[in-house]
Amino acid sequence: MKVQYCAIFGLVLCLTGSLKAQDTIAYIIDQKIQYQEIDNFSASDAWRMDFVGKNWPLEKREHIADLLFKHEFDKDGNPKGMALTNWRVNIGAGSYENRENNEVTSTWNRTECFLSPNGTYDFTKQAGQQWFMNAARERGMNDFLFFTNSAPYFMTRTGATLSADNKCINLQHDKFDDFARFLVRCVKHFRDNGYNIKYVSPLNEPNVEWHTNSWQEGTFATKSDIYKMVEELDKAISENGVVTKIIIPELGEMKMLFEVDANEKTPDDIIRSMFYEDGAYSVLSFKNLYNCVAAHDYWTAYPPSLLVDIRTQLRDSLAGNNHKTKFWASEYCILEKNDEITMPPSPVKSINLGLYVARLIHTNLAIANASAWQWWTAVSLNEDVPIQLLPIEGASGESVKYDGRVAPTKMFWATANYSFFVRPGMRRIDVRALNNDMTPLEAATSLMLSSYTDDSQVVTVIVNYADTDKTLSLACDNARKGKLYVTSIDKDLQYIGKHSLKALSIPARSIVTVVIDKK
Question: Is this structure's pTM higher than 0.85?
Answer without folding.
Answer: yes
